[in-house]
């Protein structure tokens, strides 16, 4: 039986008046998610909250593939509400209501990550940090499709513009990656307000700490020492497999 040590936190930051991020930590059911809302204070907060509330109510079992399908269905339902129901009920063109999402679900030491947007999933393993998700941004599109270097793409005036998000288009496209966890691994789910404010070295230092709570607290302390100009959210997950039989 796998035991999970996980901790989550979200913060408005030092500049914004409202937090449009939302986090979900369903540790007993092995489902975690970070959503970063967009479309103005009220709209962004509404979108991220809808995602978290929809995922919080999902029935989850021992079949990881079935759990993934349920998560996908839930996110598609939110996307439909954001692009159709809420817009049409307003009776006039409405401002964009959307949110990024990155979610991880696991059973045993097998895990899946689903995402849309630029909230990220990192894997920390043996003192090294790996980015499991790929940003759905114009900058990443320029790197992948136009063979630009990351530095060249970052100079584009709309580099951080999202190319995918829940609520951004009538058809939601989610990416998924499947992987096996190992003893000692850490997972970090976070919004761009956190990872853009920290270096890879700072992320590494935090995830090397002994517990998920210590890692999260260290991450937020580091960001809040700086400008913290955006909302920030993070979840750290540490699987603890059962001891091997002699």
Can you describe what's shown?
With 246 residues, this protein is an alpha+beta fold. The chain contains 7 helices and 10 strands. The chain has helices at 41-56, 64-90, 138-145, 150-154, 192-195, 200-207, 212-224; strands at residues 3-11, 21-26, 31-38, 98-107, 110-116, 120-125, 128-131, 175-180, 186-190, 232-240. The strands form 2 sheets. Strands 1-10-9-6-7 form a 5-stranded antiparallel sheet. The longest helix has 27 residues, at 64-90.
How many separate domains make up the residues? Answer: 1
- Shape, per Cα inertia axes: globular
CATH superfamily label? PPM-type phosphatase domain
Mean pLDDT: 91
* H/E element sequence: EEEHHEEEEHHEEHHHE
Concise overview:
With 246 residues, this protein is an alpha+beta fold. It contains seven helices and ten strands.
Search tags:
single chain; 246 residues; alpha+beta; five-stranded antiparallel sheet; globular
Task: Give the helices and strands, then pairings.
Elements: E1 3-11, E2 21-26, E3 31-38, H1 41-56, H2 64-90, E4 98-107, E5 110-116, E6 120-125, E7 128-131, H3 138-145, H4 150-154, E8 175-180, E9 186-190, H5 192-195, H6 200-207, H7 212-224, E10 232-240
Antiparallel strand pairs: 1-10, 2-3, 3-4, 4-5, 5-8, 6-7, 6-9, 9-10
Helix pairs in contact: 1-2, 6-7
């Amino acid at each position: 039986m796998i035991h999970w040590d996980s901790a989550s936190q979200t913060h408005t930051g030092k500049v914004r008046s409202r937090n449009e991020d939302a986090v979900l930590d369903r540790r007993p059911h092995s489902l975690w998610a970070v959503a970063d809302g967009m479309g103005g204070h009220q709209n962004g907060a509404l979108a991220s909250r809808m995602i978290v509330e929809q995922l919080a109510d999902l029935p989850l079992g021992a079949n990881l593939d079935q759990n993934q399908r349920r998560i996908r269905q839930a996110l598609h339902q939110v996307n439909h509400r954001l692009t159709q129901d809420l817009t049409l009920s307003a009776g006039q063109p409405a401002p964009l209501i959307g949110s990024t999402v990155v979610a991880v679900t696991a059973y045993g030491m097998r895990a899946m990550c689903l995402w849309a947007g630029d909230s990220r999933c990192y894997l920390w393993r043996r003192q090294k940090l790996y980015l499991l998700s790929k940003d759905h941004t114009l900058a990443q599109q320029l790197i992948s499709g136009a063979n630009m270097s990351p530095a060249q793409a970052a100079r584009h005036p709309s580099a951080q513009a999202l190319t995918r998000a829940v609520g951004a288009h009538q058809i939601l496209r989610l990416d998924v990656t499947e992987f096996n966890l190992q003893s000692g691994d850490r997972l970090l789910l976070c919004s761009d307000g956190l990872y853009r404010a920290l270096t890879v070295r700072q992320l590494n230092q935090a995830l090397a700490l002994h517990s998920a709570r210590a890692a999260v607290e260290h991450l937020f302390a580091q960001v809040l020492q700086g400008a913290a100009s955006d909302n920030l959210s993070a979840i750290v997950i540490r699987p603890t497999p059962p001891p091997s039989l002699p």
